[in-house]
Amino acid sequence: IHRDIKPGNILLEKKTGRAKISDFGLARVVDKSDVARPELLVGTPEYMAPEQARGEAVDHRSDLFSLGSVLYAMCAGKTPFSAASTRAVISSVADAAVDDVSLLSSETPDWLVDVIQRLHAEDPDDRYQSASEVGRVLREEFLRMKGLTRSRQSAVPGLESGQGARHPSGPGSGALPGSGSFVHWITHYRRAAVAAAAVSVLAAVLLVVGFRQQPVVAPVSSQRGDGIGQAAVTSGQPFAVLGVDGGAGQHFAKLADAIAAAEDGAIVEVCGDGPYQSGPVDLGEKAITIRAAAGRRPQITLADNSSGSGDASLIETSGRLRLEGIEFRRGAARKSGQSAGRAPDAILVVRSAPLAVINCRFTTTGSAVGIMAQLVSRCQIRNSEFVCLRGSAVDWACPDGGRLEMSNCVQVGQLGLFVHFHRRDLQDVSVRIEQNTFVAVSGVRLVVPSGRILRPVEFGSSGNVFGATKAILEIERLRDMRRGAAGGRQSTDLEPSSLLHWSGKQNLFQTGGEMLAVRYQGRRVPAPWAPRGLGDWERFWRGNEKDSLESSPSNAARSLYDRAIGDPSAITAESFRLPTDSPGRKAGPSGQDLGARIEWVGPGAGYEAWKQSVPAGR
Fold first, then answer.
1. What is the pLDDT of residues 383-420, one digit of tens each?
2. What's domain 7-209's superfamily in CATH?
3. 33, 35, 54, 30: which is closest to 43 by C-alpha?
4. How far is CA 306 from each of CA 281, 302, 303, 310, 344, rounded to the nearest angstrom?
5. Where are the extended beta strands (E) located within 153-224?
6. Burial class of 133 by CB neighbour count within 10 A (0 to 12, 13 to 18, 19+)
7. For 97-141, what is each residue's pLDDT tens digit?
8. What distance in Å separates the CA atoms of residue 221 and residue 223, rounded to the nearest whole number?
């Protein structure tokens, strides 16, 4: 461990711009016995970890905390811990009292704020557990920027090869190497000339982490219909792997082969429309992006397996995954009744790794769900279509600190969102849904174990259209299976406000049933106290639902559900556009319709339109 990671100990190589750590005067090699031994107070106070400031045992995760302080200073232009005296600085570090960097630099992207916050966790067990894990996250975020591909030539100002030599970025230093005019370091850590644009911060961060021969990126050409991409399609090898070394991509006939060849952090680009049949694909722990090539609308279907159990998913992963612009299909492979008493199947299963899904479509005709996210800490779903007739669009088992964000999506089927706690003591769990259109039997179901929940879920809903034949929100308590526990099923012992903090604005509720329904162990029970209409709903949540509307279920919504049952492929994003007589027409911000902005939804044209609408790097 180094024990003194700070800007002044980071050097930039003259020819390559590669970052290197210097000054190993305090460094030491540790074994298991060292980790348990308290340390003397050594290091630079402003960049110490809390355990270091308290004179407690330190390990490599203490260096990761210090890296978080370096990144914080790069974004905010000041150290995270500053005070009038060294004693006061050490006290502040020991308490791990850090202001959110976005309060000082609003330009800092959300994902980088999250990285810094996790590096700054007071408990080392809550931090990233290795430098390679941090590097993988930073590299993936750098490569995933919207509309970008890989190139050996720099597209980021100040990252040209052969830049002049730089001195350590500490007192007496000049600009941080590789950041050009975007990120400025002022000697003695004076305020930076307000924080850099996100892409510039990204470039500088990558330099600090010190990737070897990291490829830089340039905007993807919008004309991808010919050349290499077309050759790959006509040759029957539509799956292109863009490796992390910036070299020319390899092409494969099957998705599974492309994934097997892909390096950690690589992009797999689908250069044709298909449809392509695929068996189950396990990504392992690789960080992977799978996306449509520009101008393409790929369709990938889970191949039938009549000799097997039929319960496989199309894609499984335990690594960071990003999907863009692809339609995924899964048929009714499992025989009737085979799914009783067990978890449903899914097109996509993600375990304990961040997930981002943009402009995709998920179609299931059996009891499968679209996305099953198990203990996924950050689940982001945008501009996507879900036709999951007998399952939920998204099934999320939330972890501590978990965040589910769903925006501008459309859904038809049994259930929009299925959110469940796996234990009672979860903390800081939040769900945010914005501008979605749900046509479902029930909109949202929250399942919680019996007993007292330590902290309720924070649930924000704005600009959505909820079309539900039975209930907008279902809350289900599981029976307490502990020996001697009471087995009551009365709804009177359930207090929704202790389970859920609802905050809603400008939603449209269309229901032929209830606003809120209660279930115990999978079975509905009467809840005479539950709100029946919008007025009751607003009072029930103590005024935390504002400026919303209600109406009876529309004929268009009923027709949409019936058509989906008959022919799921006939349902498109346009099918979800509000009818002219809907109260949600032009009732949203800037006169837009409530619910999803249809022209940005789904793969193909929706994906291309959305890419054109947002700045590069978003």
1. 999 999 889 999 999 888 899 999 999 999 999 999 98
2. Transferase(Phosphotransferase) domain 1 (1.10.510.10)
3. 54
4. 17, 12, 10, 7, 18
5. 216-219
6. middle
7. 777 787 777 778 888 888 898 899 888 888 888 887 887 777 777
8. 5
User: Residue 4, exposed/middle/buried by CB under 10 A (0-12, 13-18, 19+)?
Assistant: buried
**Residue corresponding to tokens 């609408």:** 613
CA distance 560 to 566: 10
Tokens standing for 183? 């990120």
CB 388 within 8 A of CB 414: yes
Q: Long-range contacts for 42-45 (Cβ within 8 Å, ≥24 apart)?
A: 42/3, 42/4, 43/3, 43/4, 44/4, 44/6, 44/8, 45/81, 45/86, 45/89, 45/90, 45/93
In residues, how long is the chain? 618
In angstroms, the CA 185 to CA 173 distance is: 8
Alpha carbon distances (Å) from 167 to 156, 286, 321: 21, 36, 37
CB 276 within 8 A of CB 255: yes
Q: What is the pLDDT of residues 204-240, one digit of tens each?
A: 444 433 333 333 222 333 333 344 455 455 458 999 9
**pTM, two decimal places:** 0.64
CA distances from 216 to 155, 213, 414 (A): 7, 9, 44
DSSP string, 230-277: HHHHHTT--EEEE-TT--PPEEESSHHHHHHHPPTT-EEEE-S---EE
Neighbours of 490 (CB within 10 A): 11
Q: Contact, 178 vs 356, CB < 8 A?
A: no
| Contact of 408 with 597, CB cutoff 8 Å | yes
